Amino acid sequence: MSANDNKKAVQAAYEGFQNDDLEPLLSILSDDFVYVNYEQNPFGGTFHGPGAFEHLGEVLEGVDMTRFDVESLVAEDDVVVAVMNVEYTVKATGRSSREGPTVHIMDFRDGMLARLRELAVPDGGAWSP
């Protein structure tokens, strides 16, 4: 697939996410999908295969997303980079994260999303009890 095809797939996945429809995202995940997040929060760590998305789904169930704005998508070869402005409230604590940039670096292989690396603004203690 072309860089533009990969970009369109990511756009559809984000639009689905914003409308509580995960099918566009699930449809592009490779069987050996890897999710990496570098923050020290429940998103943090490296997760492989179906469990990678299940982990992310469990974490997302614990938050109310108050902002998820895609500012830009850049695609070249098999890589799509998204810059977003994200903010959420953790249901268990009632605390909000800091509003700020989140970057997704997505590696495609044969038209499927093989790896998602996430760099996020520090959560500001939103997850702390």
Q: Per CATH, what is the topology?
A: Nuclear Transport Factor 2, Chain: A
Note the gap between the termini: 45 Å
Summarize the helix and strand pattern as letters. HHEEHEEEE
CA-atom Rg in angstroms: 14 Å
Which whole number gives the mean pLDDT?
87
Task: Let me know the number of strands.
Answer: 6
Number of domains: 1
Summing up helix and strand content along with how strands pair, one would put the structural category as alpha+beta
Q: Which stretches are poorly predicted, pLDDT < 50 over at least 5 residues?
A: none
Largest sheet, strands/sense/barrel: 6 strands, mixed
Gross CATH architecture:
Roll
User: What characteristic shape results from the CA principal axes?
Assistant: globular
Helix content: 10-25%
The neighbouring-strand order within the major sheet is: 2-1-6-5-4-3
Strand content: 35-45%
CATH class: Alpha Beta
Counting H and I runs of at least 4 residues, what is the number of helices?
Answer: 3
